[in-house]
Sequence to fold (834 residues):
Amino acid sequence: MNQPTKFQPIEMAVERTPQSLPRRRVLAGSVSALAAAGLAGAGTTAMAQTNAAAPKPLPAYVGWKDPNSLIVHSATTIETKRHAFGSGLITPSDQLYIRNNLPAPDASILVDRDAWELVVEGVNEPRTLTLRELKSIGLETIAMVLQCSGNGRGYFPSKPSGTPWQVGAAGCVVWTGVPVRLVADALGGMSAGMAFMTGTGGEKLPDGIDPKSVIVERSVPAQAMTDAMLAWEMNGVPISLAHGGPLRLIVPGYTGVNNIKYIKRLAFTAQESEARIMSHGYRISPPGGKGDPSQPSVQEMSVKSWINGPGTDGLPVKSGLVQVHGVAFGGLHRVAKVEVSIDGGKLWNEARFSGPELGRYAWRQFVLAIRLNAGTFSLASRATDAAGNVQPQGRIENAGGYNNTSWADHAVSLTVA
Amino acid sequence: MNQPTKFQPIEMAVERTPQSLPRRRVLAGSVSALAAAGLAGAGTTAMAQTNAAAPKPLPAYVGWKDPNSLIVHSATTIETKRHAFGSGLITPSDQLYIRNNLPAPDASILVDRDAWELVVEGVNEPRTLTLRELKSIGLETIAMVLQCSGNGRGYFPSKPSGTPWQVGAAGCVVWTGVPVRLVADALGGMSAGMAFMTGTGGEKLPDGIDPKSVIVERSVPAQAMTDAMLAWEMNGVPISLAHGGPLRLIVPGYTGVNNIKYIKRLAFTAQESEARIMSHGYRISPPGGKGDPSQPSVQEMSVKSWINGPGTDGLPVKSGLVQVHGVAFGGLHRVAKVEVSIDGGKLWNEARFSGPELGRYAWRQFVLAIRLNAGTFSLASRATDAAGNVQPQGRIENAGGYNNTSWADHAVSLTVA
Fold:
C-alpha cells in the first residue's frame, strides 16, 4: 500500500512549533534566554542536514513529541533523526517515529480505556472482552524493535513511491499487556483449521468507500501468536493515541504494519484478510510492478544494523580515540554479532555490545573504540543473527521499497579533523 | 494459596485517583475541548487527593514533567505516585522523582554540553577533562535503580524530619556514559593509598556561608569505581538539568545522594569528604539523635520490593483472576525471588518476574496471578536477593528515616468488589 493518501486524509489541526528551539526536555521551563539562543543555532544546523526545505511542524495529535528529534514527512509519517538516537536501551516515546495508515481516531476513545472492547473470533468460545477483562487474564512485558516496512526506502535509487525513510522509522519499544496465547486459552483455544491471526484496527473509515479498500486489517501466520501480545502500555505508560492506544496488537519480529493499532477485532482465520492493505499492499513486487496476493507479504523482519555516531549531529570529531556506535537487531532472531568497517566495507572489526540484552526482539547498542587520524571515512556496520544470517551488502529491489537491510545503503561518511 | 484469612490492614494514606482520567501525554496536543475540560478537572482532583491543601504546581525547571504522575512536596522534592508506576522496564523521565540538595544551576550550563569540565584528582596523571574528551574514552550503558536514601520515610511513625516519601522517590533509569575505571586508566590509574571515590557537585553555593556546610560532595568506597560511570545520557537522551546534566556521577547500587549531579570534580582520596552532607548528613543515627562521622553513612541499597497494583489507582477491582504486580530490586545484588502475600504476611506465594532482566542493578517487575473473592486484602511483597538477603518485615529505626525496606510498611490494602 504505497499510496495511503489515495483518499484525502482527515484534516488535522496543526500545532505550530518553533523550529529553532532547543530540545523541549532539556530547557522546557528554563527562563534562560542565553540557553535558548545558544541551542537555536545547533538545532538549525542539524535540521538543515536532514531536510533542506523548511521543516514541517508536528501535527497536533503528536504535539507532545520532541520536534528537534523528528522529521515530519506528513501528518501521518514522522521519522526520528539519525543523530537523535541515543545510546540508551529504549527509544523515548517522544522521539519514536509515526506511521499511520489512517488518521488516528478521536481522542475520546481514551476517556475510559478499560471499557475498550475487543471482539475475539476463531476460538472455541468467541466473545467480546473489555480491556478491563484483558488486564485480569495476564500481564507480561516485552522489549522489541518496532520498524516500518519501508524503513530505508529513502536509499532506493529507484525512488519508490511512499515515504523516503532513512533509518528513523524504527525504535526499540517496551510493551506491556496480555499474551495472545493466554487470551486464546481463556476462550477455549484456537478453533481447528485456523492458519492466521488477523487483527482489525479501529480507525474511523471514510464514508462512501468500500471498507476493504482502506481498513487496516492484517494477517500473520497463527504461530506468531506464541509471542504476540495485546498491549495497553508502551514504555511504561498507557499507550498514547498516536501509537495505538488504548489497545494494540503486538507481533514481535514483524514489521510495524502488522502491529494493529486501536485493535477492535482479533480473529484466528483460515484465510488471510481480504483487505486491500493485506492483499495488495505491503507485497514484495518486482520493480515497476504492482502488489498482488501472489507475491510475498511484508511480515518478518531480517537482521539489520546501522551506525548512529559520532558525526551524524554535525558536531566536529577530533582525531584520536573515537567511539563508533549504533544499533543492531535480528528481527525474529537474537542479534549475535556486529562488525564495523571504516573503509566502506573492505575491512571489518568486531564491535562490542554495550548495555544489557532485553530479549531477542530488542535491538542492542554496539560500539567500536578505534583510533582515527584526520581524514574522511566511510563507516558501515554489518550484523549477524543467532541463526547465522548476515546483513547483506545490497538491498533486494522491489517496487514498494520494503525491507531494506543493505549495510552499504546505511553507511555514513565521517570527517575527522 | 489458600483462601485469604482476615488480617488487619496497616493503616496508610492510600491515594485515590479519579477513574477514567486521561493522562497528559495521551491528550496533550489534542484540540478536543472535551479532553481539555476533562484534564483540567482531573489534574485538580488528583492533586487535591495527595495533598489536602491546594496542589503545588511543578516548578519551572521540571515543567516538562507529567504533573498527574507526581506529588510535589517542594520545589526540590517531587515524588512519583504509586499508581503511576507502570509495568514497563524503565521509569519514564517525566515521571521520575526529583530530590535536589541545592537548587539546580542555571540552564546556561547546557548551552555547550561538550565543553563541560571535570577535574580529575587522585590519579597518577591528574588533569581536567572536557565532556567531549570523556566521550572519546569509552561508551557504556547501564540500567539501575535510582532511589533517594529517604524513600519510605513517610512510613516511619516517628515522623523524622525530611520529605515523607512513600514509594515514589525511586525509579529504574538507563544511564549512558564512560566507566570511571576507563577514565582512571587513561590518567595513569588511581594514586596509591586512595580509599574513596569523592564526587563534587557543580551547584552554585550561597554567598556568605562556609562552602563545606552546603556543598554536595560525597565519598564512596573506591571499589565502587568498578561499576561507576560518568554519564551524559539518561533514558536515551542528554541528561536534563533537573537530573544532573550535562554530567553526572553514577554509582550503581548506592542511594541517590551518592550519584553527584553536575559533577565538576572526581577525586580518589585517602579520606572521606569533610563536607557536612558527608560528615553529618545521611548518617544512620539513633532515633532522636543527630548525625556524626562515627555513624554508618547511607550508601549501599538493600533488597526491597513493593506492590504497585491493582487498586492503587482507585479503580474498582472485580473478583476473579487478578494480576498483583510491583517492582523488586536487590541494591548491590541481583534480585532473585519475590513472594507475595494477600493476608498481611501470614502466607506467601512466589511471584513470577515479567519482562527481561536489565542487569543486577535494575529493578524487575513481578506479577502474581491469583483468584480473589470479594473482600479486603492486605497485599505485601517480600524480595530475596542473589546473596540470600531477605527483605525484612520491619524497618530499622533511625533519626533520619533512611533505608526503609520494611515489607510491612509497604503493604497496601485492596478491596475486591
Q: What stands out?
A: Chain B has a mean pLDDT of 88. The radius of gyration of chain B is 22 Å.
